[in-house]
Amino acid sequence: MYVAVKGGERAIDNAHAWLAEERRGDSSVPELSLAQIKEQMALAVNRVMAEGSLYDPDLAALAIKQARGDLIEAIFLIRAYRTTLPRLGGSEPIATEDMACDRRVSATFKDAPGGQVLGPTFDYTHRLLDFKLAAEGAVAAAPVAPTHEGHTPHIMSFLDKEGLIQPEPPGPDVPDDLTRTPLELPASRALRLQSLTRGDEGFVLGMAYSTQRGYARNHAFVAELRIGVVAVEMEIAELGFAIEIGEITVTECETVNQFQGSKTEPPQFTRGYGLVFGMTERKAISMALVDRALRWKELGEDNLGAPAQDEEFVLYHCDNIQATGFLEHIKLPHYVDFQSELELIRKLRREAQGNMSQEAAQ
After folding, report:
1. CB-based burial of residue 75 (10 Å sphere; 0-12 exposed, 13-18 middle, 19+ buried)?
2. Per-residue pLDDT tens for 66-75?
3. Does residue 135 sit within a domain?
């Protein structure tokens, strides 16, 4: 329980006014518009939408501006706003095989049906500062390859035909919803995937990196990474069939992992899976690696004690909003708590000094 601070309202109002002034910055510099943030800081917008669990680029851009570029604060704002929205129903599962792909690559098959589409990526840049971007004015646009549209089968389907990869068990018709019910352990795979897609990108990346360094014995290949636009459909009860209600951009990653077999499963490949709003491929790949590490029990593998295999550790600590709330509360007033501990320490010191004096006298 925090102690109320009398007379603090004026100080808080002043802090808010100062924050608004700092947010605006030098008034001689043109103010950043929401359109500029949405169009030119798209990857930041995508992260806020993904970890905020709300697909709305305009609101994500507003949150980034309001938060002065602090993405975790922006994610907090989006999640808080999301709780005010009515829930009209659930959509049908998106058909990613019908994605209009801006990017589609595979690290397992060079001649993938449908072709490799490099798309807009930092993968082949030199990571050198481009000072041309500091110059004002238009930059010549590069020719853009056409988006690949139509049915594009998943790479995993070819391994499925040969029986070389573990078949996915059917999931429930209506999976658990982490945004409506608290996380309980042990969690279903659907809940684990929801936690990971909402989880902090840096945390999930660190967990994924740990699996590559040997903590979980989990060697993976990216079977396929695809980014593009998919249709969202919703069944309308009055019509008796589903209709398209919009489109979203998503990143999907499927990894193929080694598996030596167990008492219940033959040697075969297994899967890791990641799906995230927007162009968020680092997060999607990380998510797929951690998803596979968390599947050790259902695959009959040994638990090696790796952090990425600990469901409670991963799922309860990947949420940056919960982590931020718990972390930042310690900077709020704890006067009574500290004074009680201060008095306790003083008492213990007095007792210890008294005991030392008695021993010296003897």
Report:
1. buried
2. 999 999 999 9
3. no
Q: Is the pLDDT of residue 116 over 90?
A: no
63 assigned to some structural domain: yes
> What is the 3-state secondary structure of 21-87?
HHHHCCCCCCCCCHHHHHHHCHHHHHHHHHHHCCCCHHHHHHHHHHCCCCHHHHHHHHHHHHCCCCC
The pLDDT assigned to 337 comes to 86
DSSP sequence for 273-322: EEEEESS-HHHHHHHHHHHHHTTTTTTTPPP---GGG-HHHHHHHS-HHH
pLDDT in the model for residue 1? 36
Strand, coil or helix: what is 121? coil
Same-domain check for residues 272 and 230: yes
Strand pairing partners for 235?
Answer: 242
- What does the alpha-carbon distance between residue 8 and residue 14 come to, in Å, rounded to a whole number? 10
The tokens describing 95, both together, are 């058909």
Domain span including residue 252? 96-120+144-168+176-318
What pLDDT was estimated at residue 96?
92
Task: Tell me how far apart the alpha carbons of residues 267 and 261 are, in angstroms, rounded to a whole number.
Answer: 4
